[in-house]
Amino acid sequence: MSHHESSDSHEMPNMHMQQAPGMAMTDALRKHLTRHILSAGPVTQRRLDFEHARPTWLRDMFAEATGVFFYVYPGMAATAAFILQKENSAFGSIFTIGLAYGVGAALGIICCAGTSGGHLNPSITICFAIWQGFPWRKVPYYIFAQIAGAFFAGLILYGQYYQQIEVYRLELEKLGMPEIFAGSPASIFTSYPLGSQTHQGWLVLIEFFVDAFIGFAIWAVLDPSNPFISASIAPFFIGLAYCLMIWGFASVTISTNLARDLGGRLVAMLFFGSEAFTYMSYWWIGIFINIPATIFATCFYELVFRDSLDKIALGHAQHEDGMDGIARHLSQTGLMDPYPEERILRRKEYGSQSSRIS
């Protein structure tokens, strides 16, 4: 045995001795986690029968209402902290409001998408019906549930901030100021334009392109042939789209979501009177512009960016006439031989790259 071999043989036990405490700690942590995390028990037949008996439409409604609640509730809370504590900048800003709405939207999608699809926005529900075959019969109760989710979020938040809101109302009363304006207690729950924003055309322009930006981003993120977005990160990019628009345009009045605006406006009307709807005649912009703007954005995406052959090649869709239809199309367009294999290989390569990135 050489000198080097001898020294190696003496070092090896020391190495094992050095690793032993770490290995022991890992085993201890594993046992600790196993002991304190409840393992799933057997599913009873009674449980399965109960879940089978639940009405699908009711589950969808509760899921959409809950998702919108998760989206709106933290955003309203951040707005309340900002408006009611203006003297102390530590309590909020446009940045924290945007972040609260964006992360709330992501959490709302994560919580309810597995049940209802996680639309969270009436205009998105309508666009799913237009472009993706979502049943039109479901659209009315989806929209009702979404508005209800925002309404209950505002209702609960009003109760939580009741004392601070009342103090602010008394201050406004002493100063002879109204209760509804941009920055008033009512604006915690819905959007109101600034006193200088008297031209409704500009307000429509702002709202339309903000909503179109969000709608286009959502459609791109949800495109199954998009190689850069995986399902696990999609909610956060949708939330980021909301963040960006709030950070950029909240100071000039935006709504971004029919359900958020109408649900919150109903809460404002309940506690601050009918002027919640009539103030500066803004209500119709905040509630309705979202729909044509999102339809415009998704139409633009469908007409220019959508590649249905990619969706079929990746197994996310099929031709209406099945394999015969796709074979006929490929033959007519001269793509029969090289295209499918090359397309599938290329998309799989992009998909694996995006998975590594994400």
From TrEMBL:
Regions that span the bilayer: 65-84, 91-116, 141-159, 202-222, 228-250, 262-279, 285-304
One of the record's GO cellular component terms: plasma membrane
Keyword Metal-binding found: no
Keyword Ligase: no
Membrane-protein topology: Multi-pass membrane protein
Gene Ontology molecular functions: glycerol channel activity; water channel activity
Alphabetized UniProt keyword annotations: Membrane, Transmembrane, Transmembrane helix, Transport
Signal peptide: none
Domain of life: Eukaryota
Short name of any one Pfam family annotated for the protein: MIP
Compartment list: Membrane
Family stated for the protein in its record: Belongs to the MIP/aquaporin (TC 1.A.8) family.
Protein name: Aquaporin-like protein
